[in-house]
C-alpha cells in the first residue's frame, strides 16, 4: 500500500484529512517535527502533507520550513505537499522553491486534497519506475562501458558533464581499464561528434617518426617525403585528437606539443607557415605523470596544459562488484558472436571472478571469457575454463540475505547508541523505531545498552 504521512498539529484537521482517502492509501499522522521525522524514517512514505504552522511556532512557518529541509535531505524522493492558509501564498511559493512538490490551501476540501495527493502519488510511482528502468541497463550511458560500482559511475557522470565543453582532458589509469573508450565518449557526447576522432599511440611509433605523424610534413622535407602529408592533428580538425600514452612522448616533442596547445597552430616538418587548427585534445597514460615530472622525463608546464580536467580510472580490482557485472555482459555479447548464446557461469566461476585481482583489467577479462566460451564442454563455464585459481575463494560461501540484513541492523543500532551516548529514547528516534522495538533488537543482537558495546 502507498504510504501518506499527514503532518498537522490540529487534532480536528488530522481526523478530517485522514478520512479523505480510500483504503488503498495507508495514512499516518504526526503533530510536530520530531514525530514527523520518526515516522518518515519508519514508514518511508511516498507523500507527505506538511502544515507549515507547527509547534513551537504554530502562528509562523519557521518550524515547518525546518521540517521541509529535513524531509528533502533524509528522503529526497518523497513528495511533499505544503498546506498553507488562504492568505499565505508567499510561503507556498517559497516552499515550492525549496523543493516541495505542490501546495494546498486551507480550508479543507476533500475532493481537491484527494486529487493533489493522488497526483503526487502517481508522480512518485513514475519516478520510481524510471529509476528501475534506468538501473536495468549497464549503469552508464557510455557506449562500451559496463559499470555498477560507485567509483566507476562517478567517472562516467564526470565524462557526461565534461563532454559538452572543449577543455583538455587527461585520463589516467592502468592498462586495460578502458581509457580509450572514455576518450571516445568525450568525443561522441560533444558538439564535435560528427567531426573526426583521430587517435595516435605515442609509445608505439619510433621517436624519429612521431613528429611527422603528429604534425605532418612538406614535400622534400626529408628523404622519402615525395609529397606533402597532413599529420594527425590536422586530420582531427574540427573534431577530437586522442594522444594515448602521452607519458612516453619524447621531451623534444613535448615542447612542440606545448606550443600547439598554447597557439592552436601546427608547424609541419619542413614548413615555415603555421596552419591554424580547431581541435579538442584528450590525452591518456598508464604512467604516473607526477613521478615522470620528478624524474625530469615530462614537462611540468605541459602537464598543466593537458590536465585541465583529470579522470583517474580505477583498476578493475578497485571497482567493487564490477568484475562479475562485466563478465556477465561479456559472456552475453561474446557468446552471441561465437554462436554459443546460452552459456552461464558456474558457482565456482563466479567466486573465482570476484576473488581474482585482474592485473590486466578488462582487457585480460575479455581474453579469459573468450577462451572459456571456446573451451566450455557444457552450458556452464567453470573456473577451470576461465583459467582462474580457486585459492582464496570461500567455496562454502552462500549469499544469505538474512545474515546480511542482521549484520547491517546490528551496525546501525550500535552507531545510533554511540551517537546518542546510549540514550535509548534518542537512539530509537534516530533509527525511526519505537523504544520497545529497540530494546527487543538490542536483546536479539546481545548489544549492551549501559556500556560501550564490544563489536569483536
TrEMBL record:
Domain Response regulatory intervals: 3-121
Domain Sigma-54 factor interaction: 145-374
Domain of life: Bacteria
MF annotations from Gene Ontology: ATP binding; sequence-specific DNA binding
Keyword ATP-binding: yes
Alphabetically ordered keywords of this record: ATP-binding, Nucleotide-binding, Phosphoprotein, Transcription, Transcription regulation
GO biological process: phosphorelay signal transduction system; regulation of DNA-templated transcription
Chain positions with 4-aspartylphosphate modification: 51
NCBIfam families for this protein: PEP_resp_reg
Name of the protein in its database record: Two-component system NtrC family response regulator
Organism from which the protein derives: Marinobacter nauticus
Source species taxonomy: Bacteria, Pseudomonadati, Pseudomonadota, Gammaproteobacteria, Pseudomonadales
Amino acid at each position: 500500500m502507498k504510504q501518506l504521512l499527514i503532518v498537522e498539529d490540529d487534532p480536528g484537521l488530522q481526523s478530517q484529512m485522514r478520512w479523505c482517502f480510500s483504503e488503498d492509501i495507508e495514512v499516518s499522522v504526526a503533530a510536530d517535527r520530531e514525530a514527523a521525522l520518526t515516522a518518515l524514517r519508519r514508514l518511508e512514505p511516498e507523500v507527505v502533507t506538511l502544515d507549515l504552522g507547527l509547534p513551537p511556532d504554530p502562528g509562523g512557518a519557521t518550524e515547518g520550513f525546518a521540517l521541509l529541509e529535513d524531509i528533502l535531505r533524509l528522503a529526497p524522493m518523497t513528495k511533499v505537499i505544503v498546506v498553507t492558509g488562504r492568505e499565505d501564498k508567499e510561503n507556498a511559493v517559497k516552499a515550492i522553491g525549496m523543493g516541495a512538490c505542490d501546495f494546498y490551501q486551507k480550508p479543507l476540501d476533500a475532493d481537491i486534497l484527494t486529487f493533489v495527493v493522488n497526483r503526487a502519488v502517481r508522480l512518485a510511482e513514475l519516478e520510481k519506475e524510471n529509476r528501475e528502468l534506468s538501473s536495468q541497463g549497464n549503469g552508464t550511458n557510455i557506449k562500451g562501458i559496463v559499470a555498477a560500482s560507485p567509483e566507476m559511475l562517478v567517472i562516467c557522470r564526470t565524462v557526461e558533464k565534461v563532454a559538452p565543453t572543449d577543455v583538455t582532458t587527461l585520463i589516467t589509469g592502468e592498462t586495460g581499464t578502458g581509457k580509450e573508450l572514455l576518450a571516445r565518449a568525450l568525443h561522441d557526447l560533444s558538439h564535435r561528434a560528427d567531426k573526426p576522432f583521430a587517435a595516435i599511440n605515442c609509445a608505439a611509433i619510433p621517436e624519429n617518426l612521431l613528429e611527422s605523424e603528429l604534425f605532418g610534413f612538406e614535400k622534400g622535407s626529408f628523404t622519402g617525403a615525395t609529397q606533402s602529408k597532413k599529420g594527425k592533428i590536422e586530420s582531427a580538425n574540427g573534431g577530437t585528437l586522442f594522444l594515448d600514452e602521452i607519458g612516453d612522448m619524447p621531451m623534444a616533442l613535448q615542447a612542440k606539443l606545448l606550443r600547439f596547445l598554447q597557439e592552436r597552430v601546427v608547424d609541419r616538418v619542413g614548413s615555415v607557415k603555421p596552419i591554424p587548427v580547431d581541435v579538442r585534445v584528450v590525452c591518456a597514460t598508464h604512467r604516473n605523470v607526477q613521478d615522470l615530472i620528478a624524474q625530469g622525463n615530462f614537462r611540468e608546464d605541459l602537464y598543466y596544459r593537458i590536465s585541465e580536467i583529470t579522470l583517474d580510472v580505477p583498476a578493475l580490482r578497485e571497482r567493487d562488484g564490477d568484475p562479475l557485472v562485466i563478465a556477465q555482459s561479456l559472456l552475453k555479447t561474446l557468446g552471441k558472436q561465437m554462436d554459443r548464446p546460452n552459456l552461464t557461469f558456474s558457482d565456482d566461476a563466479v567466486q573465482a571472478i570476484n576473488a581474482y585481482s585482474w592485473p590486466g583489467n578488462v582487457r585480460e577479462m575479455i581474453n579469459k571469457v573468450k577462451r572459456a566460451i571456446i573451451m566450455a564442454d557444457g552450458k556452464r563455464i567453470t573456473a577451470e575454463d576461465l583459467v582462474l585459481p580457486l585459492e582464496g575463494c570461500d567455496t562454502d560461501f552462500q549469499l544469505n540475505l538474512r545474515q546480511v540484513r542482521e549484520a547491517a541492523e546490528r551496525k546501525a543500532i550500535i552507531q545510533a547508541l554511540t551517537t546518542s551516548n546510549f540514550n535509548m529514547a534518542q537512539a530509537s528516534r534516530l533509527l525511526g523505531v519505537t523504544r520497545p522495538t529497540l530494546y527487543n533488537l538490542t536483546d536479539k543482537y546481545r548489544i549492551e545498552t549501559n556500556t560501550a558495546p564490544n563489536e569483536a
